[in-house]
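User: Quick sanity check before I run a bigger batch. Here is a single chain. Can you write out its predicted 3D structure?
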Amino acid sequence: MPVLIPAIYDLIIFEPEFMVSNMKMINPLIIVKILSTILLVESLAFPVCVPVAFIYKEPVLPFVLSSAITGLLYLIFSFISRREDLSGLSNRDAYIAVVASWFVLSAAGTLPYLFSGVLTSFNDAFFEASSGFTTTGASVINDVEILPRSILFWRSFTHWIGGIGIIVLVIIILPTLKLTAQQLFSLESSLKEKILPKTKAIGFRLLFVYIGLTLMQILFMCIGGTDLLDSICLTFGTVATGGFSTKNAGIANYSPYIQYVITIFMYLSGVSFVLYYYLVKRHFNKVRQNEELWFYTGVVLASGLLAAIILITQADKPVELAFREGFFQVTSIITTTGFATTDYLLWPPAGLILIFVLLFTGASTGSTTGGIKMARHLLTIKNIRNVFIKLVHPNAITQVKLNRKPVSDRTNISVISFILLYIFIFLVGTVIIVLLGIDPVTSASAVAATLGNVGPGLGLIGPMYNFSAMPELSKAIFSLLMIIGRLEITTLFIIFSRSFWKV
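Assistant: Done. Predicted structure follows.
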């Protein structure tokens, strides 16, 4: 441990040479060019809400104005950076562009809320937009059922865009793909595994899978009697593992059939999209040999059964109801979706402890979920097991493997570093929120829920409550935590390192 801590400190905070090696000078104009593409995508997203507004006889002006403003900014940014070639994108540029993209995306996403009058505070609107795009699902809106249907659609659509959709669309739209796409793939949290070099073809296949899952769930939802708009909104929240609902009670008032459908698709959305890519390519062995997939499945099954047993034995709930509620809630928390079918704050203490622990899990790497992710947990367990083997057999030569491939020491240190940094941010964030006057349980769960992109937590931000009563400063902090979590922490923190700014 005395040796490990300095190593982690150097790798993550001060000297992350493995992440910033061979970096060129920062080129602000090329960053502006990338941001212009983000603005273009978002300006085209706003008009998608216009037909919904027409159908329900609601004002279209909020979306027209939002599209016009972001479109104008796109033109300005595009003009400023017109001479830049994206093939010259450096690692430094990529890091800054990815970080800036999420702030720009969220800032522009506030416009429909502000222009419609649904939210009057920019802080609240930024919280809602960043929660949507980061697929967190936390909200500051007390009564969503009185909102215009077009705004409900926009809230859920931000999930769909902010999931894998935005990164795939950017990859497809960008005129120069080789270097740019590679860097986006390696930096974006939702696509950590490198499946290059045919990035454009991969982008289209991932988009196809994403749309396919979306259409499948919409179909199943409609079969269950849910109206089309609700089906679309809930599907966006499920496939993107976001969690925005169109009802104040979340999923509680929907039929058992709908709850089972959402549970299944939450699980499917927590699977790495890289594996779906392998399925499309018929590389079935890579799917079967993926240890993270089986570990993720095992955690969901074990947690669901444990929750069901707790509800049966300690809450006297019928077997089917306990099974349905238990599996729905643990799947929702593990996949960082944040949907709820019941107020789990009324569960026995053992159930609440289970929920709190699961706030730190996350599903598969390469999915739209947040949190620490199953691969990191699995590698940590493997490393702990190796430590025990070494204690019993000091001279034994051991090698940590994942998917039958050796894991380098650098990767192991990176995983441990990430978890330690994650815990550190959680602890610091909790202390800050407590100092703002929030009780410890609410503070801890709120930080865990926003940093992990989960949404609901415990205490005052339980599944039947929201963040509207939180102090204004805490909302800004939670917005930042959501973006930090979406960027997998190190992507943001790396730009504050000394070596990042060395020429």
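The CA atoms of residues 209 and 276 lie 7 Å apart.

User: Great, the batch can go ahead then.
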